[in-house]
Write a structure and sequence with these properties.
4% strand, 434 Repressor (Amino-terminal Domain)
Length: 140
């Protein structure tokens, strides 16, 4: 498995290779607004606006403006920090979900991009070993 195959494997497992959905584009379905999603995630974790703001390096007012829909265009950097804080993908945070996608796998895919080539190779070897072990277990 070369690097290209490895990336395609992760994308396929995460549900990133998808069919076109005639209603919302390539396999996407729109759910709730970013503000509603952000508020839902914050309340689910039992956090205050200030706690979220401190965790992501934003002002409490800006987080409130996002939640209430008064701010409509957060930076990609802020979206990434919010997604990381709530352990979701940016796509999930902004209300675009990939049908059949596993949020954990998408987060793992995002985290893989930050690793060095030797670390990616190590993970690739671990996956190959696990797939081999699974195949051998199914053959028994």
């Amino acid at each position: 498995m070369d690097r290209y195959d490895f990336v395609r494997y992760i994308e396929r497992e995460a549900g990133l290779c998808y069919e076109r959905n005639k209603n919302n584009g390539p396999g996407r379905s729109h759910t709730m607004s970013i503000g509603a999603r952000l508020r839902e995630l914050r309340l689910k974790k039992g956090l205050s606006l200030q706690q979220v703001a401190d965790a992501v390096g934003a002002s409490k007012a800006h987080i409130w403006e996002l939640e209430t829909g008064k701010s409509h265009n957060p930076s990609l950097d802020l979206l990434r920090r919010l997604a990381e804080h709530f352990n979701v993908t940016v796509a999930g945070l902004v209300g675009e979900t990939l049908e059949g996608a596993d949020e954990r796998l998408l987060k793992m895919y995002r985290d893989l991009k930050d690793l060095s080539e030797p670390d990616r190779a190590l993970i690739e070897d671990v996956i190959a070993s696990m797939k081999k072990r699974k195949a051998e277990g199914n053959a028994a």
